[in-house]
Design goal:
Layout (H helix, E strand, L loop, with lengths): L6 H18 L3 E5 L9 E4 L1 H10 L3 H26 L7 H17 L8 H12 L2 H17 L1 E3 H12 L7
Helix pairs in contact: 1-3, 1-6, 3-4, 3-5, 6-7
């Protein structure tokens, strides 16, 4: 892994995952820019979401909806990072591998018909992230990640909603 990759770049990548998770309604445990193993940062799924995925495995339509959301979340890191850097280089090979695997699973459940590729989802997320308030939420969360390094779900939601909804959330 290259040492030339800036922490700021990683913070935008991970903030993209977190904002996408928020937008599609998938909870996570935390988002971090603290390196672990072969990752420069990551969004940790909550235990509730992991159990939900297992529960949905026998519920065809709900599983497909959830799988589509997971693909959106996978590509969102690269989208945010590329909108920030504008250099066309994307981190997160693991994210894209997971997105392709999830798309393949969708194709199996749709009897071999490829519904959409991860690149279709990429452009959908890119359009959403170009919205002013959404991008401001990503910038703000990325900045907070640089300070805190790790942010839990509730704190991330408060940061996002303060921008998107223009008031802090009450928990």
């Amino acid at each position: 892994m290259s040492q030339d990759i800036s922490l700021e770049r990683v913070s935008y990548h991970e903030a993209g995952h977190a904002v996408a998770s928020y937008l599609v309604g998938v909870k996570f445990s935390h988002v971090t820019i603290v390196p672990e193993k072969n990752r420069l940062g990551y969004l940790k799924n909550s235990k509730t979401e992991q159990k939900r995925a297992m529960f949905l495995s026998d519920k065809y339509q709900k599983l497909n909806d959830y799988t589509r959301k997971r693909i959106l979340i996978c590509v969102a890191g690269s989208v945010a990072e590329n909108l920030y850097t504008k250099d066309g280089i994307r981190l997160g090979a693991y994210d894209l591998d997971e997105a392709w695997l999830l798309a393949y699973c969708l194709s199996i459940s749709d009897r071999g018909k490829w519904p959409l590729t991860p690149w279709d989802y990429y452009y959908e997320v890119e359009d959403k992230f170009k919205e002013e308030l959404i991008w401001k939420a990503i910038e703000t969360l990325a900045s907070e990640l640089l300070v805190r390094r790790t942010i839990g779900y509730r704190a991330a939601v408060e940061i996002i909603e303060k921008i998107i909804l223009d008031f802090p959330t009450s928990t």
